Amino acid sequence: MKEPIRYLSLCGLLGYGYSPVSLENALKEKLDFVGVDAGSTDPGPYYLGSGRGFVKKLQVKRDLALILPHIKERKIPLIIGSAGGSGARPHVESVLEIIGEIAAEQKTSFNVAVIYSDLDREFMRRAADGHLSSCGGSPEFRAELVDKLVNPVAQFGTDPIIEALESGAEVIVAGRCCDTAVFASFPIWKGFDPGLALHAAKIAECGALCARPVGANDSLVVEMYEDHFTVEPPNPARSCTPDSVAAHSLYEQPDPNCFYEPEGKIDLSNSSFEQLSPRKVLVRGSKLVPADKQTTKLEGTVKVGCRAITIAGMRDPSGIAHLDEIENGVRAAVAESATFVNPGEYSLRFLRYGLDAVTGSNEAPTTLPREVGLVIEAIAPTQEQADALVGLARSKALHQGFPQRKATAGNLAFPFSPSDFSGGEVYEFALYHLTDLPLEFEVKTMVIK
What is the DSSP-derived secondary structure letter of residue 233? Predict the structure, then answer.
């Protein structure tokens, strides 16, 4: 009979923060490892393309500085997945730099295993030759995009992290990987049921988001047994219930009976959720159906231009009622004046918050709002062109005529001066596909001090 494994999910995403009370309570008992997911595609393609993190350095450093001394003292691994937000080399390097700063400040050192997940052009050319399939409804990948890809990565599963664990590293800094791999690798390495390990990992990846009150900015403790696992928030202000844990098992999944990982299908059709104590839930019955054919998800971006925006408010009821006419007039006026950029090389977008910015034409308001927040966005090949376009659009919108207009002053109220903001480079996903080609991920070890 295997000795149970107890591990801590630090928080829903590295840098989101967690309560010191949670850490203190979790450390009162033995821990076998600590894991934290650090990345997502949820914030969009910019962060992968730019090589920057959507969680700021000071946030990440705070979370790591609290846990790293305990990792060192207890001689247990810390596993960081999708380091830096998107898991490409620049993101991984940024986390290694932070660990280095902490090591210097705390006058210690860390044995670190690094797993890079970047893809080279040669692999992408082979993959584009009949070895890519759509993921999540993505359009067919065009081979001519290979040389335009920025920071393409592969999202690996548990195997590379298990290899890193075998190296004896104190800290594992993984490139782009599945969220579940962060938490399932250690139990699978120790011989626990992979279906249970992956289901537990699916719940643990978001920290205390499976508890009530919900909180991705807090911790979760998982205990793995041979035929079940338990989840419990170490913060006494939160509790898990069968409903809350079962609901989170469906998080981001289209099918309530299963979810898919590189290892295969995790079948939840026979899973049960039981209240074991006031704040702890027991889960059993989850099974892994191994994949017939191994596939790996690939992600990559292309640069499409530069962005500029302006933000304003509108309260004139006639102006709000005729926003379509104002927008059409602004577009025509900008097209007439924007001789510094070719017509097909830029885009102009109007987001009308309070009216239809979120739902579009799918849910038209029954009555017009008293005020609308207007965001005007321009995207063009260069930042200078985008800035000029949004400046034109802003000035045209400020004074654009419309039916029943009475005022001779401007249409818009600007909350900021300057009113226009340069948004920098714009990226979009071009690679969001599965490949059946085998991939190897090198595990590199180093000492950071």
Answer: -
